DNA sequence: TCTACGTTTCAACAATGGTTGAAATGTTGA
DNA sequence: TCAACATTTCAACCATTGTTGAAACGTAGA
């Protein structure tokens, strides 16, 4: 369960053009992640600069990394992104379900496979 | 549909202790909102400082305001918060539904009334 | 109109954050 | 061990941001 301090750090990390691109690139890349070098090229920043931002994102808990040969592979921390979203909307309803139903619907629409509507 | 520039502004706005508290206070307060003065007391900042942060949040599109007597009532912009969440997770699945299912489940659990499971 | 109240604007300051190039670290294959 | 590669660290600079108190603005009621 995320606390305020962590949430501030996470949002601050995402509130920067290059870092938001990095996270979105990694989210899109999926669990396998991407090497730092390719990430730098994809996002359009220097190696030095990417390293700075990756350190920030790592410290905020939004990305993870592993070494693979000479490369270091970064990947999105999906569980922490979930926690962050949940923190932002926590206590939003106050009994009024309709207030935040659109947010639920939007996220569900983004992530629920069409056709395969298994309720599990 | 939110673009990158808006998302960066929104996340940057949320990435500050006092502003995150303000937004959460307003989210908790519900659609009726709160007067600026009560908000300042609840969050623990001076009037001047609150005004500064509210301007930032307004510019980021995360809060709205209306005058009521001498007070100005601020309230959370729920649709924009939904958009922001959706932007962050957009394209996350890449065919792998299980990757972001936890985020959907977390948000749904927060906002779905227990017992009353109307699918509307 | 006058006074009190709630909120915002302004100007100044201290602190933080992003970018850059050069140098250091760690890894691989010859 | 050596040279080439991938990434990080370091130090310096410039720009942005958060905070503060005083002053200004707009509204309500006497």
UniProtKB/TrEMBL annotation, chains A, B:
Residues 1-96 form the HTH arsR-type domain. Gene3D superfamilies: Winged helix-like DNA-binding domain superfamily/Winged helix DNA-binding domain. InterPro entries: ArsR-like_HTH, HTH_ArsR_DNA-bd_dom, Metal_resp_trans_reg, WH-like_DNA-bd_sf, WH_DNA-bd_sf. It comes from the Bacteria. The keyword Transcription regulation applies. Coiled coil: none annotated. It holds the Pfam family HTH_20. Keywords: DNA-binding, Transcription, Transcription regulation. The keyword Transcription regulation applies. This is HTH arsR-type domain-containing protein. It comes from Methylobacterium thuringiense.
């Amino acid at each position: 369960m995320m606390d305020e301090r962590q949430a501030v750090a996470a949002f601050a990390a995402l509130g920067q053009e290059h870092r938001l691109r990095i996270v979105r690139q990694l989210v899109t890349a999926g669990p396998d992640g991407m090497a730092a070098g390719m990430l730098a090229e994809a996002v359009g920043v220097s190696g030095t600069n990417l390293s700075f931002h990756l350190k920030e994102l790592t410290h905020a808990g939004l990305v993870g990394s592993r070494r693979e040969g000479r490369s270091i592979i970064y990947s999105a921390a999906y569980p922490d992104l979930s926690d962050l979203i949940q923190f932002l909307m926590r206590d939003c309803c106050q009994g009024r379900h309709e207030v935040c139903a659109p947010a639920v619907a939007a996220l569900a629409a983004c992530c629920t496979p069409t056709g395969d509507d298994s309720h599990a």
